[in-house]
Amino acid sequence: MKLRPLHDWVVVERESVRSEGNDISISSLPSNQGRVIAVGQFVRGLKKGDKVQFNAYAGYVLYSQSCTVTLIKEADILVFWTEPME
């Protein structure tokens, strides 16, 4: 599924929440970090692939057969960073 957000919306794929010290995924807790999948035409400073942190309950969750993403307003993103290419 290819999403193209409008205006100042950002499509984010949330990271899995992991309990401390284990590799167990806890799906009942929403993650507050993720990777940018797409940005609207009025979003400045963010691009596809950036990692972002936001309020865990921000935005709207969109479900499809292939993936689950969150649609978040640019103003709700607290911080972002770009990981170096490996």
TrEMBL record:
<dbReference type="InterPro" id="IPR020818">
    <property type="entry name" value="Chaperonin_GroES"/>
</dbReference>
<dbReference type="GO" id="GO:0044183">
    <property type="term" value="F:protein folding chaperone"/>
</dbReference>
<dbReference type="InterPro" id="IPR037124">
    <property type="entry name" value="Chaperonin_GroES_sf"/>
</dbReference>
<protein>
    <recommendedName>
        <fullName>10 kDa chaperonin</fullName>
    </recommendedName>
</protein>
<dbReference type="Pfam" id="PF00166">
    <property type="entry name" value="Cpn10"/>
</dbReference>
<comment type="similarity">
    <text>Belongs to the GroES chaperonin family.</text>
</comment>
<dbReference type="InterPro" id="IPR011032">
    <property type="entry name" value="GroES-like_sf"/>
</dbReference>
<comment type="subunit">
    <text>Heptamer of 7 subunits arranged in a ring.</text>
</comment>
<comment type="function">
    <text>Together with the chaperonin GroEL, plays an essential role in assisting protein folding. The GroEL-GroES system forms a nano-cage that allows encapsulation of the non-native substrate proteins and provides a physical environment optimized to promote and accelerate protein folding. GroES binds to the apical surface of the GroEL ring, thereby capping the opening of the GroEL channel.</text>
</comment>
<keyword id="KW-0143">Chaperone</keyword>
<dbReference type="GO" id="GO:0005524">
    <property type="term" value="F:ATP binding"/>
</dbReference>
